[in-house]
Amino acid sequence: MNRTPQTTATDAGTPDGREVSPAVVLLSGVVGGIGFAVGGLLTAASLAGHAAGAWVSPEALSPGLLGAAMVGVAPALFTVGRARVWEEARCLVLPLVIVLVGLFVVTLLNAGSLQAVRGGPLFLALFSLGWVAVLGALALAALGCLVAQYRRPAAARGRAVDEGERRRVAPLPAWSKPLLAVLGSGWLGIGAGLVCFPAFWGALLPWTTNRADAQGLGVWALALGVGVLGSLVEDDLDRIRPALGAVAVIALALALVLAVHAPAVDWTSGPGASLLALVAGLLGTGLSGRWLLARAVRRGDGG
After folding, report:
1. What is the pLDDT of residues 90-129, one digit of tens each?
2. What's the angle, vertex CA 77, arms to CA 75 and CA 81, rounded to 5?
3. In sequence order, what are the residues at sequence separation of 6 or more whose Cβ sits closer than 8 angstroms to the Cβ of residue 113?
4. Which of 45, 147, 179, 191 fits 222 for a cystine, CB–CB 3.0-4.6 Å?
5. 201 with 193: CB under 8 angstroms?
6. How far apart are CA 107 and CA 286, in angstroms?
């Protein structure tokens, strides 16, 4: 038979896929650094009981959650440069683009709530202006980097991926797929509701929010939903390695802020219980995924 042997990670030392664009690596590192600094500021202020966001918030919890998500994803963004192919990074980078573009749009839509417009303290007013400028630049850069990534020509192994011939190193266990589908759909649905209908869905959150808070949190929820559902498309724990670390750290950071502000949350409500389940689902996904991947590698499944 005249059949071309399939190239695998074991055969070539490099997995099937496209080369990661240097622009994507640079963007991830820059956003990771900025996100760690800004997110750390928002989180620390929230833990101290202050709402120090770019826009005026009725409580310190919402900007604290936004900051916690930024801090949580930063370590994973620093690892994008170690991705051997684009397919190992896209489950993390595509949600990142959603966050950057989404938060910039939300900020513009709620410009009237910015600290600089509402006459907030000088530091927060300057912070809000810097937020708009830096976030706008990063959002444009993210779109440009994404275009640059998909303009890169696919190698022979990359074409094999497009044709569905890629060998999966550590496929997702069958039992995990329904759970991931529910978790991803939950985050995606809540995010879409908060972004598109903030007046209705924001009122359902188990703490007090305004329109800007609801839409900002919705953007992050959308990104988390896309990331989790993207893992089902990849169906390979090795391909989603950077994202696995991200969801676990994000969940821990969110849990810390929620624990400190526990009295402000109506935990007895349906939304309160759902929030606990969604955050626990992120943590369980990250930890179990890393454990299953490590076990697959020990057994030699990862080559």
Report:
1. 999 999 999 999 999 999 999 999 999 998 899 999 999 9
2. 115
3. 55, 56, 210, 211, 212
4. 191
5. yes
6. 30
